[in-house]
Amino acid sequence: MAKVLCVLYDDPADGYPTAYARDDIPRIDSYPGGQTAPTPAGIDFTPGHLLGSVSGELGLRRFLEAAGHTLVVTSDKDGDGSVFDRELADADVVISQPFWPAYLTADRIARAPKLKLAITAGIGSDHVDLDAAIAHDITVAEVTYCNSISVAEHVVMMILGLVRNYLPAHQVVRDGGWNIADCVARSYDLEGMHIGTVAAGRIGLAVLRRLHPFDVQLHYTDRHRLPAEVENELGLIWHESAADMVPHCDVVTVNAPLHPETEGLFDEKLIATMKRGTYLINTARARIADRDAVDQALRSGHLAGYAGDVWYPQPAPADHPWRSMPHHGMTPHISGSSLSAQARYAAGTREILENWLAGTPIRDEYLIVDGGALAGTGAHSYSTTTPS
Ligand code: NDP
Fold first, then answer.
1. Pairing relation of β-strands 117-120 and 93-96?
2. Which has the closest alpha carbon to 316: 330, 335, 326, 328?
3. Ligand 1: distance of its center to the CA of 240 in Å?
4. Of the candidates 46, 70, 229, 327, which lies 20 to 30 Å from 2 by C-alpha distance?
């Protein structure tokens, strides 16, 4: 029988919801490109309910306990003596979400002799030391595509929010004011602007598709070019590198994974090459942008705005400069954890567990590490220092 250790974010401050804003969510059976949404044998939750917090338990308890397995759920993940550290010692499976990452470091993996499976309930397994997972023959899997569209929608929202100066104008209303000039002195139309994405994978391409109807000029850079018909359909301008692209843009959105090529990419030097007044949106990973360079560029006015939902570390400390810098539209790490996305990644987590517990293959597109090497999506998207 397996012990499954699940690290989830805390419940809402006023308790686990007993009612929701809407009665249902749309049913999504497949994603752009044809990949099917998760297909577990069954689910024990109501799609549209809060599943990603501790009491939501990703809807897994009944399924696991009925089969005699143990489920431990906690939000206490950091520091020596955390529940996560204690329970990890004899856990067979760890489940974690990028929004509230349980950092599976090499040291922790060394202290988890029974650990065989690490599931990311979401996308992005950079909180797992993949070299250590490979060395200890731990399978790492994530629910590929489950929240890519959720993030793309968040990106479009943040671009519009910054360019139109939405959040400050909303604050004027909340404060009882009506000074139109205060609201519009930093407000522009997106129409006609040049918008570039660093990476045009699942999220980046979905952002481009959603922005196309705004009559903007779209740019992208990626390690591989998109098919010519997609470039033509969306009128895309391709650039060899981010450095080549960003000087042409009014808005830049980052949609690449964090790895050695992208870590610290938006440093003081690259930001200095951007036009004064550019908006930068980063929902990929915080460390792709230099924390202090972003803060400084907003204070000097070189960047007109910065928004995103990714921080380092997470949760971000109360004195993190991105909480108080001017003209930002940051949220906590939430773009991929809408109630709609939760239903998909809870179902995907269940599907992965069903396969693993039955000894049947996990979908190739969900695999990051398997059999002591990068596998599936991991072999395409991730790099390690371990030869594979
Ligand atoms: P994909 O794997 O579909 O796309 C990533 C793209 O990045 C690929 O096209 C890849 O190119 C490209 N790429 C990699 N390195 C570079 C580089 N140095 N320069 C330019 N392009 C590069 O991933 P997704 O679109 O689904 O997700 C992207 C990232 O978004 C994730 O890695 C994750 O970090 C983040 N994310 C954030 C979420 C949130 O809640 N904020 C939720 C989900 C994801 P190629 O394949 O050609 O090598």
1. parallel
2. 330
3. 17
4. 46
Predicted local confidence at residue 204, as pLDDT: 98
Take residue 187 and report the two structure tokens written for it. 């407000």
Q: Which residue's CA is the nearest one to ligand 1's atom 15?
A: 256
- Name the closest-CA residue to atom 40, ligand 1: 336
> Looking at the annotation, which residues are catalytic?
147, 285, 314, 333
Break the chain into its structural domains and give their ranges. Answer: 3-146+337-374, 148-323
124 lines ligand 1 (CB under 6 A): yes
Query: Is residue 387 over pLDDT 60?
Result: no
DSSP single-letter state for residue 328: B
Starting at the edge strand that comes first in sequence, how are the strands of the sheet with 373-374 ordered?
A: 70-74, 3-7, 93-96, 117-120, 139-142, 367-370, 373-374
pLDDT score at 50: 98
Residue 282 to residue 304: CA distance in whole angstroms: 14
Query: Does position 302 have pLDDT exceeding 90, yes or no?
Result: yes
Burial 176-196 (b: 16+ CB within 10 A, else e): eeeeeeebeebebebeebbbb
* Atom number of ligand 1 nearest to Cα 337: 40
Q: Whose CA is nearest to atom 19 of ligand 1?
A: 222
DSSP strand E in 271-382: where? 278-282, 303-308, 367-370, 373-374
Q: Is the CB of 199 under 6 A from ligand 1?
A: yes
Residue 80 has pLDDT above 80, yes or no: no
Q: Residue 63: is its pLDDT beyond 70?
A: yes
Superfamily for the 3-146+337-374 domain: NAD(P)-binding Rossmann-like Domain (3.40.50.720)
Give the per-residue pLDDT at 388. 36
Q: How far apart, in whole angstroms, are the C-alpha atoms of residue 74 and residue 364? A: 29
The closest alpha carbon to 149, from 231, 205, 220, 100, belongs to 205
pTM attached to this predicted model: 0.96
CA dihedral (64, 77, 287, 337) in degrees, to 10, reads 40
Give the Cα separation of 245 and 96 in Å (integer): 35
Cα-to-centroid distance, 10 and ligand 1 (Å): 27
Q: Is 144 in the pocket of ligand 1 (CB under 6 A)?
A: no
- Bridge partners, 194 (sequence order): 217
